[in-house]
Amino acid sequence: MKIVETARLTLRELTLDDAPFTCTLLNEPAYIRFIADRNVRSTEDARTYLQNGPIASYQRHGFGLYLVETKADQLPVGMCGLIKRDNLPDVDIGYAFLSQFQGQGYAYEAATAVMAYGKDALKRKRIVAIVTPDNERSIRLLEKLGLTFAKMITWPADGSELKLYAIDY
Prior knowledge:
This protein is α+β, with helices and mostly antiparallel strands. It has one domain: Gcn5-related N-acetyltransferase (GNAT) (Aminopeptidase), CATH 3.40.630. The protein has helices at about 20-25, 30-35, 45-50, 55-60, 105-120, 135-145, and strands spanning about 1-5, 10-15, 65-70, 75-85, 90-95, 125-130, 150-155, 160-169. The protein starts with a strand and ends with a strand. The mean pLDDT is about 95.
């Protein structure tokens, strides 16, 4: 199901058919370094990730991570969406793009659309983001989107220190 369109991109719900792309994205070095190693090593692992992650989130919350693809040729370039985590009181924006599509404005374009969707369609009054302190590209993007640094938090799963950014509408 299509969620939003921008000038160059379409964001739609992920399906199990997106498992090969998902496997590739989740094994990008930057994804593993800055987000997490999800231990997705095969298409079957990716199907399980999709079923238990984004697809379950659509059913449970009505939103989640979306596939970002080019409008011109439906080429998948990344994921972007809103995530409801048990250990955060607000939804947070998340995004990841294949390395060959970074630096082309796709992340900003997709994230801007997701922020507007969260505010206007989902009626969210606050959206947050979590980021590792050394992920300078992501921090610049969050600030360009209008989010500001709120505080440092300790991530319960691994004890890592993360920066929490937020925007209130």
